Amino acid sequence: MIDAAALERRLAGLVPIGLSERGTNRLAWTAEALAAEHWFEQQAEALGLRLERDPVRNLWAVPDAPPPWLGVGSHLDSVRDGGRFDGALGVAAAFEIAARSTLPLAVISFTDEEGARFNTPTFGSRALAGRLDADEVLARRDDQGVTLADASGLDRAALERAPEWLPRLRAFVELHIDQSRALETAGAAAGVVSALAARMRVHAELRGVASHAGTTLPADRRDALAAAARLIVAAQELGADGNAGSGMVVTASRLVAEPNAFTTIPSLVELWLDARAPDDAQLARWRERLEQAAAAVTANTGVQVQIEIQSHSPSTVFDQRVRAALRDAAGGAAPELVCFAGHDAGILADKLPAGMVLVRNATGISHAAAEQVELVDAAMAADLVLAALGRLA
């Protein structure tokens, strides 16, 4: 059986990479990401697995056996000031599962799952699934104005070749921390994900007029920040849709204001909204009503509002056979649940049989330095995946 000590040993070389008091910073295409790649290479070598990089630099530790293989893994990158276990736990557990299995398994770490630097979530798995607009993605810029193409060294041809690697997998299972308190509430160490909620990232640009904060009369103001506040409130109220139990969540996740000066009315605001819903129709209704709310904000404030969808992932139901194997392996001890976070397994699920197991998170805190899971729970979840892979084989 997989135990907590084994997972702790594997994580020992990974957790310190990019770690500070603020949290973990391993953004894609950085020195920290390269250091994590080196850790991955060491883990693969120790198990006698061959390290390969596909055209978009997803990391593959593959066996000396012909494909297609069963795959297991997650990602090594983080959000800004993120948690120690998000993604990392899944890759460490995958190596331990491969070490204990007699099956030819491929361990995979997907590139840029978080999309924190260029707003490109699930970049690596989307590339494998052929779900990226290569020219648009490669032209995206980080906060310093660096394009993804320049940071990564990738080009259009690389993204177009990536789907050629997907047939190497028969199925894929991802272990990940629960990013809610659902399993803690259920009193379960692990849970089987039945589906992923529909998700959308929206960028709003609000253009007003910079002017003196003290001398400009209310009727003459075109305050972009005040207009953004109205749009944020409207977006969240539309998400509730008059029903506190609608199941939809809307977050104003990032905001940048210019000129950002004490005595000047803001002239420009960039706002990012993160919206998630149990089904696609609910998310589509929210998106349509957000456009109407933006038009109302312009009419009431004189601030011009432009809305753009930067990413959209429809709801995904995981493969029934994979879910059954996971449930059977758990012997009824792992409840099924819908996950409101995005994951690489959800992207691959459109192309091949895929599934997910979540590990209990007592506080529900994730994407933050306080993120914590008990490795005893993680070991139980890893054993569950190991047994399920045997059933799938």
Summarize this structure as a short list of keywords or feature phrases.
four-stranded antiparallel beta sheet; nine-stranded mixed beta sheet; alpha/beta
Report on this model:
The protein is 35% helix and 24% strand. By secondary structure, the chain is of the alpha/beta class. The strands form three sheets. Strands 3, 4, 5, 6, 7, 8, 13, 14 and 15 form a nine-stranded mixed beta sheet that branches. The protein has a four-stranded antiparallel beta sheet with strand order 10-11-9-12, covered by helices on one side. A hairpin with a 5-residue loop joins strand 3 and strand 4.
Strand content: 15-25%
Beta strand count: 15
Q: What about the largest sheet?
A: 9 strands, mixed
DSSP summary: helix tally: 13
Which H/E pattern describes the elements? HEEHEEEHEHHHHEHEEHEEHEEHEHEH
Whole-number radius of gyration?
Answer: 22 Å
C-alpha end-to-end distance: 19 Å
The geometry reads as: globular
Content-based structural category:
alpha/beta
Helix content: 25-40%
